[in-house]
Design a protein that fits this description.
Blueprint (H helix, E strand, L loop, with lengths): L3 E7 L2 E8 L8 E4 L8 H5 L1 H5 L5 E4 L18 H15 L5 E5 L1 H12 L7 E4 L6 H14 L3 H12 L7 H8 L2 H8 L3 H10 L10 H8 L6 H4 L7 E6 L6 H10 L4 E6 L6 H4 L1 H12 L2
Parallel strand pairs: 3-4, 3-5, 5-6, 6-7, 7-8
Antiparallel strand pairs: 1-2, 2-4
Helix pairs in contact: 3-4, 5-6, 5-7, 6-7
Amino acid sequence: MENGELWIQANGVKHWVRVAGAEHNTIPLIAIHGGPGGHQWILEKTGGKLLEEFATLVYYDQRGCGRSDPPADSEEYSIEVLIDDLEQIREALKVDRFIPIGHSFGGELALEYALKYPQNVEKIILEGPAIGDWERLALNQIMSFISITDGEVQEKLRNLLEQEGPYTGRNGEAWKLADEQTTMAFSFFKKESYAKLVEISTDDAPKVGNEKMKQKIQEVPFSNLIGRIKEIECSVLVMTGLYDGNTGIDMARDIKRNLSNSEIEIFLESGHYIQMEEPEKMAAVVREFMNR
């Protein structure tokens, strides 16, 4: 591989890809962003720069996200097709084995990919991973918002818990109730981290969010990913921020519990974006894990 941007067709969709650190000639890290509907911009502008100093790192935006094209059929979003997109990108890059580094929803995709294509995965790195349980995620997010609010806002959030029906969707209402300060505390440990997010959210930054993708992914029935990952045999590094209000430390803990060859690193000064809040420590932990 050579450093630089390129476009790769996967399942008929043109994907934006960027390679950095190719001169290190390591087993590549392939970064899988969160969402559903995120992109690689935050990692590129923060912790990714440090990873590039010692590892070959491949960034790509998923179909319909960031700089990649949407599918011709707006219904073509699923875990299965996203995994197949990644496999076709791997083949196009002529990579035999790689290390997926998945953030949030990207952690779920990394685990699902490893279950389908174990022969292609050297190790796995997860950052604030999700587990495909949208009900649990929604409940966790509402409870996290309750823990950092008070007064009328907290009362409205508590009322969300008392409504009938699935929690999935109600967490969207929780986000609407949160002001800027609450949103900052939900995602980050440090106030300066939120300021950094604002700083890198320049006019040329890709847009965040793909509601159609999010809707299609969340329609999938409970997949019991936690139960199925016991089949994964390669080494897994689970990284979680102590103050992660999004996926929460419990999901990372449960992944660790169900993987026989895994370790967990808790970042004491991070929320959901370790790559932004403790990039130097993250890079050191990843480097040490890769070199074992």
